[in-house]
Design goal:
two-stranded antiparallel ribbon, 2 strands, mainly alpha
């Protein structure tokens, strides 16, 4: 498979992810929408369905949709990122680029769909929350720990049971994301994906959103670094576990 196909697959898949995922947050958070005040459970299920759709769209590239997943596969020692896609420097950058661009584009389209409600919403914090995550209690070390743990669960389960998100299956990955959201998502909003947070945050900064306020760049590194650390740890542990089990047997 050519890297051009991989790039486009990840762009479209990750764009679908953030269009629907950020879209459900917009439906819950913005003034006057039909889903206003739908609650956190609505958000978690919406993100699960967003993942479900994104994995289907990006199935040809293995549907990483997430630099932490790509990094986990790299660290785990996989020979291929997807059938016919070797693990090397060029393919790694291709996945990262497609994921970040797709996340940005999906957020822009989401904004277009909710433009009038962004204009009507008086709270800048609610507008930013549609695009990117933020902590319930701001504490740098503990927010970082939460993102590491949540991403570890995501990538470890994918590596252990499916190899890639498309290998695990769209429904299984969707339910996994819902499970992480309802169990571990409360403290930070469970970015568990650097592209999902950074791409839309950049969109928030660049788009002409009425009364949008700050993009909270002082927090922005946590949903990038935390998931990358969590994905790395998951790649290492997923490689060690079979060795330990074999040795114990």
């Amino acid at each position: 498979m050519s890297l051009g196909i991989v790039f486009l697959s990840e762009v479209f898949g990750t764009a679908m992810l953030t269009l629907l995922g950020c879209g459900v947050v917009a439906n819950v958070a913005l003034k006057g929408t039909k889903g206003n005040n739908g609650g956190f459970l609505m958000v978690t299920w919406g993100w699960g369905i967003a993942v479900f759709a994104g994995v289907y769209v990006a199935a040809r590239s293995g549907a990483h949709l997430n630099p932490a997943v790509t990094l986990g596969l790299l660290i785990n020692g996989k020979a291929e990122y997807a059938p016919g896609v070797s693990v090397d420097f060029a393919s790694t950058l291709t996945y990262f680029g497609g994921e970040f661009l797709g996340a940005f584009l999906g957020a822009v389209v989401m904004w277009l769909a909710h433009k009038q409600h962004f204009d009507a919403e008086p709270e800048p914090a609610s507008k930013l929350a549609v695009f990117s995550t933020g902590p319930a209690i701001r504490s740098t070390p503990w927010n970082l720990v939460t993102e590491i743990i949540g991403t570890f669960v995501l990538v470890f389960v994918i590596l252990t049971f499916g190899g890639t998100p498309s290998g695990l299956g769209p429904l299984a990955v969707a339910l996994l994301v819902v499970g992480i959201g309802v169990s571990l998502g409360g403290p930070t909003g469970y970015a568990i994906n650097p592209a999902r947070d950074l791409g839309p945050r950049v969109a928030h900064a660049l788009l002409p959103i009425k009364g949008k306020g700050s993009s909270d760049w002082s927090y922005s590194w946590i949903p990038v670094v935390g998931p990358l650390v969590g994905g790395t740890l998951a790649g290492v542990v997923a490689a060690i576990v079979p060795i330990i089990v074999t040795a114990a047997a």
